[in-house]
Amino acid sequence: MRFADRTQAGRELAASLDDLRRQEELPDPLVLALPRGGVPVAVEVARSLHAPLDVLVARKIGLPGRPEYGVGAIAGEDPPVYDRTALEMLGLTEDELSSQVAHERTELTRSEALYRGDRPAPRVADRAVIVVDDGLATGVTARAALRRVRGQGPARLVLAAPVGAPQSVTALSSEADTVVCLHQPAAFEAVGLWYDDFPQTTDEEVLAALQATPAR
Fold it and tell me: Rounded to whole angstroms, what are the CA distances from 21 to 17, 101, 156, 172, 211?
């Protein structure tokens, strides 16, 4: 299974989530997108569920000199979540990543201010919260995001993504009440390989999506 782009992937994901809604398993739903790539996917989900859309900013903690290789993540003011297996394999300690964590904290604060402005964070308690991303690779960013939401007392916590590495989907099933992942290829490699069109989502596109599908 391949997707033309994030919009088409979001529509297919929305169809699966609509089944949960019809089973009355999504009380008072709230869709939270992981920016930036998760936002165009989440727009389609929010529209289908007639649910408000907002963002949940989480930042990947990359290797020194290789920021694209995530070994941890942060969300909100919560402590970092690490891929312990990766740290052991690489012979890294948390202290050695302190500068990366500090940098990502700064970027997280900047992004939240940009996307939310003076608007307060949405109420999570006693709601069905659907956390949406465009794909699950290592899953560490999604893990940090899910733990952030779980700490706020949702009635139901769902993780939804069009595509993901099978081992990550399995691991994340312990963090969410339900994981909806349409395609779990054995030879996963990278999220972008499963999209025909996979440009980087810009801050401007995130802001436009939030304005078009506002949190209520």
Answer: 7, 37, 12, 21, 24
Q: Note whether 38 and 65 are same-domain residues.
A: no
CB atoms within 10 A of CB 161: 29
Specify which residues 82 forms β-bridges with. Answer: 72
Tens digits of per-residue pLDDT, 52-77? 999 999 999 998 888 888 899 999 99
Q: Tally Cβ neighbours within 10 Å of residue 169.
A: 20
CA–CA distance, 184 with 182 (Å, rounded to integer): 7
Nearest-CA neighbor of 179 among 192, 195, 168, 193? 168
How does pLDDT run across 141-182, given as a tens digit for each residue?
999 999 999 999 999 999 999 999 999 999 999 999 999 999
Within a 10 A sphere around the Cβ of 35, how many other Cβ atoms? 24
Of 86, 114, 142, which residue constitutes the final position of a domain?
114
pLDDT confidence of residue 110: 96
In angstroms, the CA 214 to CA 211 distance is 5
Residue 43 belongs to domain spanning: 6-57+121-212
> Is 136 within a domain?
yes
Using a cut of 0.90, tell me whether the model's pTM lies above it: yes
